[in-house]
Amino acid sequence: RGRRGLRRAMTAAEERQSITPTEEANAKMSVKNSISKTIELEQTRSKESWPPWRRKGARIFESRYYDVIMGAMILFNSAVIILETDHRASGEEGKDWLASTTSFFMVVYTLDLVLRLAIYQVQFVNSTANVLDGCVVGLDLIGLMISAAMAGAGPTLSIFRVLRLVRLLRFVHVLSLFRELHLMLTGFVSAMKAIFWASFMLLIMLTLWSVIAVEVLHPINERITARGLHDGCERCPRAYSSVMHSNLTFLQQIIA
Question: How far is 239 from 246, CA to CA, in rounded Å?
Fold first, then answer.
């Protein structure tokens, strides 16, 4: 019995070692899909105990038509934000319809958030989209109140206007309404991880070469500067004077 158990353990270990990275990734994906399906099933079962008005409201919010309507409103609101930004930059006065339209969209988004909170209640935080909408609406309301309270404050008001730019995050919601755009967005997020680690590796390599450049190239560069060959170039004498300056030089010459 002891030998049989040992053979089984050795066989299981060999099978685990023979799993390829692709098979491991597929297994992880299947586990994630099963977990998400289980969560959706539990949410569906919990909705069965809801009052009729909450179930009806949830069907409306989760319907395709509602997503299309909200997507169209977000696109129109984005156009209004562009016009409002250009109008503010030009210093023109008037065009009160921009402010009225912005207030209208703010009322619509706030009403949408309040109704979602009333319908989903505790389950509201289970959706990333709901949390994002809540943060955007909350920050937008804070920006509007600060703008109204500090009207004419000059640069201080401009700083808080930047806070209202979070309204543009609603445009991300539009990307999820179309399958092709959603796939592109998912691929972009996945690619950003590889880009981040590649950039980190590139920074390490440039830093290593920058250390060598300070030790080897900087003395040569000092002799060139002493001969007056860097006249007209303000940065050339300190191009390799430190590791940070060497990093900047390599980034400018190789990457930029």
Answer: 6
